[in-house]
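Many introductory courses stop at the sequence. We go one step further.
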Amino acid sequence: MLRRAALLWLLPSVALAQTAAIGTVTITESDTDGFVNLDECTGNTTDNLILTWQVGSNGSPPITVPSGTTVSLTISKDAGCPPPSTAVVWQPATAPDAAGSASGSYPVSGTLAVTTVLSTLQLGTCPSQAALLYACAAMTISGTTYSATGNITLDTQVPPAPTLDSVAPGDSALIVSYTVGTTSTSAPAATDHYQAVATGPDGVDHPSSSTNSTSVRIDGLANGVAYDVVVYAYNKAGNKSAASNTVAGTPEPVIDFWEAYKSGGGREQGGCGAGSAGDLAPILAAAALALALRRRLS
């Protein structure tokens, strides 16, 4: 997968003999998270690229681009502006404006598939280590080559599977608690967020929202129906861990603590409240009373 709009930050190339920076080159990918992840690398998820460049009077140093000048665009696994033999190369013609600057994108319409680029660079099997893919825009004017570079992270590493500790019943819901897994050579990535999934006897999956907490509530379930629950960890690039252990749970038509708190007047939406424990005491007491009355009547 070349996961909050993410452009690749650009690094001007180092000036060498007969070489100077011309402006910027940017890679934008369709899901805008700034990564190519494992699913995108393998083609399980579609991700596409657009290369955008600007050269000329707004570059550094300012230059005038003669009419008919060609800009060479490349993507490579090597830094800088490598030769065509190690890169995916395009040469779109520019159309300088009156101020002598030019800009454009490739493709002019549509997008460039990540899998096409990786296959051309012989990275179709996806590297096991995180790496950078580099972009370059270059042109030659009067014997001097002007260039700019940018990059994007190719991240195929996965985080460790979490350990599912407990699944507690809620009203049309399950409350899932888990702990972070231990990294290993096969799962070395740091965990960025989690998602729990409850699967009913009909085989339909009911995912929770994504969270960076070690507990989450899965809503929208049927009371009295048993669900198998697993949890997945994701790294920042969106690579998913193996599934946790499976724990079964059954929602029940009761007021769980969260519902009792809300019915008692609680206004917090989760997380740490700004008020003191004393501020919450009347609300918690009302919540406990509501819960006790519900149980007595049932």
